[in-house]
Amino acid sequence: MLTIGQLARRVGLRPSALRYYEAEGLLEPAGRTEAGYRLYAPADVDTVRLLRRAQRLGFSLAEIRALLAAWRGGDLDNAETLALAEGRYLALERQVTELRVQQHELELFLQELTGAEAGAAQSAFGRLVDRICANPTAELPSHTVLDWLTTYNGCLLSGPAAQDVLAQLRGRHIHVWREDDAYHILVVGRDPATAAALAELTRLERDCAAHPNLIPELTDDEEGYLLVARGDNAFILARLFLALEHETP
């Protein structure tokens, strides 16, 4: 058996953190000494490590309780815990997409600044590009995004019917931004083939049973074609178009 101090040292935490886990119903002592001090089983080392990992991954306390219950029951890979993990993955994908869209908008803004002022703005942008190029963060290729959609969603965009559509949209110049709880995707230019591809993509998404709460709307814009995506899974289209822009047609 381990005292609270011994367990804390094994897992790299303070005893107060273990007492907090106990107060939240996440960790229970296996017993107590005659003097009333907590005692923990050696297996509690792994319990706390799983608990900390779940915290790092952003699971809520309620979700961690469910994960721990499944783990203690020897059934961590059941359907419920898999759904929890996939839900957390989707939440992170939404956050990543929001950051990528902000990065995309900021890149356009910096380009506007360098076009307006050739002095300080140009040198500042040059320094920024040098830092970014020294440690590039490449955009995910669209086939990787589609592989993910297939694995987790069974999305129609990953099927053979969408291949010609996506091929037509690769390498197109786009602007992506978020406004009024929707992602706006502007495909610049007036190409009938692009318009047809966007119309077909919109139809596929409306018919896609994998995420029925993704609502795409396609309209004409003075600069090209504007696709507005609303709903919990709207980030999927934003992420896909950011990937398509970086690919060769």
UniProtKB/TrEMBL annotation:
One of its GO terms (molecular function) is DNA-binding transcription factor activity. Pfam families: MerR_1. Residues 1-70 form the HTH merR-type domain. Keywords: DNA-binding, Repressor, Transcription, Transcription regulation. This is HTH merR-type domain-containing protein. It comes from Candidatus Promineifilum breve.
